[in-house]
Automatic annotation (TrEMBL):
This is Rieske 2Fe-2S domain-containing protein. The chain crosses the membrane at residues 298-317. The keyword Transmembrane helix applies. Pfam families: Rieske. Keywords: 2Fe-2S, Iron, Iron-sulfur, Membrane, Metal-binding, Oxidoreductase, Transmembrane, Transmembrane helix. GO terms for molecular function: 2 iron, 2 sulfur cluster binding; metal ion binding; oxidoreductase activity. InterPro entries: Cholesterol_7-desaturase, Rieske_2Fe-2S, Rieske_2Fe-2S_sf. Residues 28-135 form the Rieske domain. The keyword Transmembrane helix applies.
Amino acid sequence: MSEAFRLTELVRVAEVAGPPTELIFGDWYPALRAGALREGKTAKALLLGVPLLLGRKTGGKLFAMRDLCPHRGIPLSAGWFDGETVTCKYHGWKFEPCSGQCREIPSLTSHETLDPTKIYAGAFPCEERDGFAWVYLPEVGAGRVQVGEALPPVPEVPKFSVRFRSAHLVAELPCNVDHGIIGLMDPAHGPFVHQAWWWRSAASIHEKTKHFEPLEDRENNGRNAGFRMSSHAPSANSAPYKLLGVYGEPITTTIDFVLPNRRYETIRAGEKWFSSLTTITPVTASTCRIDVVAAWNVFYYIPFVTSIATFFGARFVRQDQETMIEQAEGLRFHPGLMLIDDADKPAKWYFALKQARLKGTGEHPLSGPVTLHWRS
């Protein structure tokens, strides 16, 4: 069996048999790379089980519509987009894509009183940040998001200088978003999943002590709650961190997890820095996708540095992807699972934060700073 077929087949099996999970709406998610959207062109995406039609209007404004005509349910992607309006293939209804407002129903005559502008197709706020088209999906049943309505800020990778380089990575994961997220924050899998000369090995395992603190968001009902691995010297058995050592400055790293799905990492060595934003985005209730955007001013003037970083980053993400594909084979049989201390404590915090967000009640699982110990 070829590797390509194996990946496709396991993703299919996982989507059918993998356990679904409850999804968090009322937030921003990356739908696809913004570079895929040229003026006057559209693309399809699936986000939290919602079919989307995305495009770029003449002038550059992005839009995201529910890929369903409100008349008879045919996908709007089957129709046409002229840079200003989306036209349904079935009956020619025309929609302004940013608001979803219907502008024309060709079948209406002077004998009818129906006002097409009172009809709306589904449309969602869509913004471009860091090379992604971010879409805000409101809570189910919340209704249409009104123009000018206050929304949380669009996520963005931290940057600490005007000049920097950046790169993107993406990988499909055949598991629900919960498995993707706890895999993302799992500190103990590194020496086993990411064994490589340029990263670390099982022989390099040693005990670590890390300090965590809560990130609370009382003003927004816990919308952006999370936790932080406090600023610390990075692991001595991780080769990429050592690269910043050539600048002769102390190296520190800080890692934040923020609901619903975001991991921020910032590494500083004097004026040199590297930062990343990794998201685990639900495609459906049982499948997800990992998106990474990284920015840095390290070795800024070295030719091909972006290509080199992307190559090794892609290998790193692929190792996680392969492990999740193999895990999906076991999850098909719905085994009993466990979380242990201390390495799995961040996963427990995530589940508690998620339930508090979904229910709108509950305290932060961290009452204050916490110290955890594990070997990796």
